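Build the 3D complex.
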Amino acid sequence: MTFRAHILGAAAGGGLPQWNCGCENCNLARAGEIPAQSQSSVAFSANGDEWAILNASPDIRQQMAQAKVLHPTDLRKSPLRSVLLTNGDIDHVAGLLTLREQQAFTLFATTEIHQVLADNPIFAALNPNYVSRVQIALDEEFELVEGLTAQLFAVPGKVPLYLEGEEVQTDLLGEQTVGVHLRSEGKNVYYIPGCAAMRPELRDRIEGADMVMFDGTLWQDDEMVQAGLSQKTGQRMGHMSMSGEDGSIAAFKDISVARKVFVHMNNTNPVLRPRSDQRKAVEAEGWTVAYDGLELTI
Ligand code: MLT
Ligand code: MN
Ligand code: ZN
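Done.
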């Protein structure tokens, strides 16, 4: 068995380019001067034939068409066995509606994330005769797909944007935002596309990992404010930034991880420009910036 990760979408919600965004990156992507990136999703397999998709992005139809490993192998036979959700955000659940075509798979998520789907009747489009919704408790070990076990753990985050009330706690630790520990034949991989802060428990957990895929939403906390696009900081969105004292690059400096990969980049993030100084800086720190179609073998 070979532990494989296939990046289906490297961008955060909105994608690159985002439909209504005229920022530098979005314009460059529209002009074909930098690669476009679709929304946050990654597929994992241990045997190469059966795959799990982590987060179902609104771009899943196109992503599956582009990923050979996910093409049907017979009339109505898909290599997709399961989908696992790490939060209830639109960029991670909207693709479930595309997966409604009477195809059997297992939908894994915490009770709280399942509740978000249950509260939205449109998700009844996933016929229960085909799609079984399985609730996973934090730290419970389960088989995600043949040869691959997984465990969910809480990471600091917030409820989905569309469920925000007046007061928003952006570093909640609970079932609404989780990271995933994937294991196959002694290899340990972590997938953490959203994380508001590095905490000692998280540091201890990922120490010694073979690979960590981590929240790469913003380069700098006030990047969208500086660009005149939004009043929102990364912290307000529940994402830690790459740069700065509290950033992920600094946080990972003293954690031993064999392969560090940034995922879930917002379209404003300068690392999405292959020749930017920021891209060179993250690569010099040993990080890979994910891109659509990147396949990683562990
Ligand atoms: C996020 O990761 O912060 C969300 O996906 C934002 C959104 O829902 O657009
Ligand atoms: Mn997101
Ligand atoms: Zn943009």
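The first strand starts at residue 4 and ends at 9.
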